[in-house]
Every structure is written in structure tokens, then in C-alpha cells.
Design goal:
This protein has 68 residues and is mainly α. 78% of the residues lie in helices and 0% in strands. It is elongated.
């Protein structure tokens, strides 16, 4: 199970970096506000999920990666 936890955390960290980079791109600025808000919310959820004090990080990440 520890392997799966690490896999989820690494996938979440990778997505977080990609989303933050995209947020700074020209393409992001061209999106409608609805899409921008969804991306911003996803970034916040990932940041919260990746804090190890958050006991639900595995549940939050698993929901998106379907690794379980």
C-alpha cells in the first residue's frame, strides 16, 4: 500500500506543476472564466491533498487518478 501512496503523491505533484505552468501561459488567459476557475480549484485541491497532515490526501488523489 505504501507504493500506491507514493505513486499517488508523485502523480499529484506532477499534475500540480503542470497546472501551475499552464496557469502562467497565454492559452490560460484565453480561456473562459469558467474554465479558469475549474483549473484554479483543481490547483488548490491538489495543494491541500499533498499536505501530509491532510488525512484525505489519498482519497482526493485516488479520485482523479483511479489507481485503486
Amino acid at each position: 500500500m505504501e507504493y500506491l501512496d507514493m505513486e499517488l503523491i508523485q502523480a499529484g505533484e506532477k499534475e500540480l506543476v503542470e497546472l501551475k505552468n499552464f496557469r502562467e501561459s497565454i492559452e490560460f488567459n484565453e480561456l473562459k472564466d469558467f474554465k479558469k476557475n475549474k483549473i484554479e480549484k483543481r490547483i488548490i485541491r491538489l495543494e491541500l491533498a499533498l499536505i501530509h497532515e491532510n488525512p484525505f490526501h489519498e482519497i482526493i488523489l485516488t479520485k482523479y487518478y483511479n489507481l485503486v
